[in-house]
Design goal:
With 403 residues, the protein is of the alpha+beta class. The chain is built from twelve helices and ten strands. Helices cover 46% and strands 8% of the residues.
């Protein structure tokens, strides 16, 4: 399969475009510099380092380099390896730890050996450029800007941002989802989904207690914004004069059509990703418990079964099929998947709308939670059986008294 590598950035172009209209000259300049640098990188897509001291491939070995505000990665200085001591630079340590947490998540939850499944090394570059308002995965390595300090902070401070960007690598080595229109929005959504799953896994949070935000840590305290995106409520992550209103839709009826250009966000890949994001959130809370278990496994297996031009409908159908393969036809997990996609305006192929509604209502009567703990379910069955035995015993006693 031929794959075109993109520079996948966490800050979408529509946000930077909005900042170009700011009354603050420093904010305008930082946005323009970030856009120009990112455009240059997309044109090159060959920036990579080769150091004798770099870690060899195998089991996701980590190496962190310091760009020292430079833009040319081969000039970066090696500052931390698996064998080296902790650095005195907080950005270095946070990048190193974030790479490790993401690697460990994929290994322990899905038995995946690094991004490519073959132990691909994980290289991180910190202090890229001066005041660079972004972080990106370029197909080979993870690069972090320090932020301008006015709008954005150091991007190494957000574990879900790190996991989001590295998951672009997982997608590249599995489905290879083309970075435009629906397949590109699905690509971004997959990174948001597993970005938040890594954050939840690291904090041991359940679907019910998680905040479901991406990039909650990237804005400075002076900026009135919750995060870059919300999986729970797409379109509500921010709403202020500086950034505008979060444009993400949460339903197919609000799908946004944009041109397949860089300034058009390749057909709105960072915008329309809100639709499959919401579908995953609904699935996870519908099943309940830890999101990386059933819901995460269904999405991961569906990603592996997808192809370059997979669209929302294709992926929805695949998740429904995978839920059946993993948990059984008509299982609570499968019903949660079906109800979730229906909730964002996508009907599973081959399932009549009336049947889907009836099954969704049935799932709702069961509390909207698909999967019960095995012991709890067994205890409930035993309790029901004991009640039946008591009733039978009472009937026998009554019959004996009548003789």
């Amino acid at each position: 399969m031929t794959r075109t590598r993109h520079v996948n950035c966490i800050i979408p172009p529509h946000l930077l475009d909005k900042l170009l209209g700011s009354d603050d000259s420093e904010i305008r300049k930082a946005a323009l510099d970030t856009l120009l640098t990112t455009t240059r990188l997309r044109g090159e897509r060959s920036v990579r380092a080769s150091f004798a001291g770099a870690a060899a491939a195998g089991n996701g070995r980590r190496t962190v380099f310091d760009c020292r505000q430079g833009r040319f990665l081969p000039f970066a200085v090696l500052v931390r390896t698996e064998e080296g001591a902790e650095s005195g630079d907080l950005s270095v340590n946070r990048a190193f730890d974030g790479l490790g947490t993401t690697r460990d998540f994929y290994q322990k939850v899905f038995q995946r050996n690094s991004l490519d499944g073959l132990g691909m090394r994980l290289d991180g570059y910190v202090h890229f450029d001066a005041g660079y308002n972004n972080a990106f995965w370029d197909g080979r390595q993870m690069v972090f800007g320090d932020g301008d300090g006015r709008m954005f902070t150091d991007f190494t401070g957000s574990i879900d941002v790190i996991a989001h960007e590295l998951t672009h690598g997982v997608t590249e080595f599995t489905a290879g989802l083309a970075y435009h229109h629906q397949s590109g929005a699905l690509n971004e959504s997959i990174s948001d989904v597993f970005g938040t799953l890594v954050k939840q896994w690291a904090a041991n949070e359940s679907a019910e207690t998680a905040d479901w935000l991406i990039g909650a840590d990237v804005f400075t305290p002076d900026i009135d914004a919750d995060a870059l995106r919300s999986l729970k409520a797409p379109g509500t992550a921010y709403d202020n004069p500086l950034l505008g209103k979060d444009p993400q839709p949460d339903h197919m009826s609000r799908f946004v059509n944009l041109p397949n250009t860089e300034r058009g966000d390749y057909g709105g890949v960072h915008i329309n990703s809100g639709i499959p994001n919401k579908a995953f959130y609904l699935t996870a809370v519908g099943i309940g418990g830890f999101s990386w278990e059933a819901a995460g496994l269904i999405w991961y297996e569906s990603l592996k079964a997808s192809s370059m031009e997979t669209k929302f409908q294709d992926f929805a159908d695949t998740t429904y099929q995978k839920a059946e393969e993993l948990y059984g036809a008509g299982s609570a997990e499968q019903l949660a998947v079906m109800a979730a996609w229906q909730g964002v305006g996508i009907q599973i192929s081959g399932v009549p709308a009336g049947v889907a509604r009836a099954r969704s209502l049935a799932a709702g009567r069961d509390g909207g939670v698909g999967r019960e703990d095995g012991l709890a379910a067994l205890s409930k069955q035993v309790g029901a059986l004991a009640a039946q035995v008591r009733e039978l015993s009472e009937d026998i006693t009554s019959l004996k008294a009548m003789r």
